[in-house]
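thought: fold this chain, then report.
action: predict
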Amino acid sequence: MTHPDHTILCAAPMQGFTEAVWRHAHDSVYADGLRYFSPFLRIDKGVVRSRDLRDITSPLNSPFRLTPQIIFRDTFEFSTLVRAVTEAGFSAIDLNLGCPFPPQCHRGRGAAMIARTDVMSQVAELMRDMPHITFSVKMRLGLRDSDEWHPLIDILNRIPNLSHITVHPRTASQQYSGQLHHRVRRHTRQLRPSGHLQWRHHHTAADFRPHTGLSGNCRHHDRTRTTHAPIPDMRMARPY
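observation:
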């Protein structure tokens, strides 16, 4: 969906809520090109969870635009998830480096991956060898330190098929409350601009509610997306 000011609106994922049935119902009422991201797919007992695959392959997903999101802790999980998603017919994948929930972080996934630059360097090399896939990244600033993400900049700059980065300007330990680290905008200037690097900040999600059908339970967490495309994007809903 394109808002009158040309901002592209995206529905961020919520586990157990924004799955295929919800996306289908929402799109049937607000069918105006809104982009949807799936709740993250993950590995369970060495294989991709079947319920996650059923969600992204459901016939209810047609005809709107859906980008599957994956969460991983090593190159094995990354490669396994990418293979499953591409075999399901998708060519765009969102990487979750922002989940703050302890059960995922304790396994080295989500926001915990931000500090694991050795693993992310290996993942970046794999991504470079997949030019047929367009990747994006959703991330926080770190687990407890808001500067943890700085070493990731060089790694992200080496990925030519990275379309955009979504930054939630909090650490995982802050969860969904606490002071926003607005100085993050200054550091994004170090990111590789292939096209126009733009920022757009909206004070409240209320301005978009008539266009998206957002309920009172959906909140805008002052997340700002850095995009390497001419048009900035914004996701709305409770992120993780």
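thought: worth noting. The chain is about 25% helix and 15% strand.
final: tokens above.
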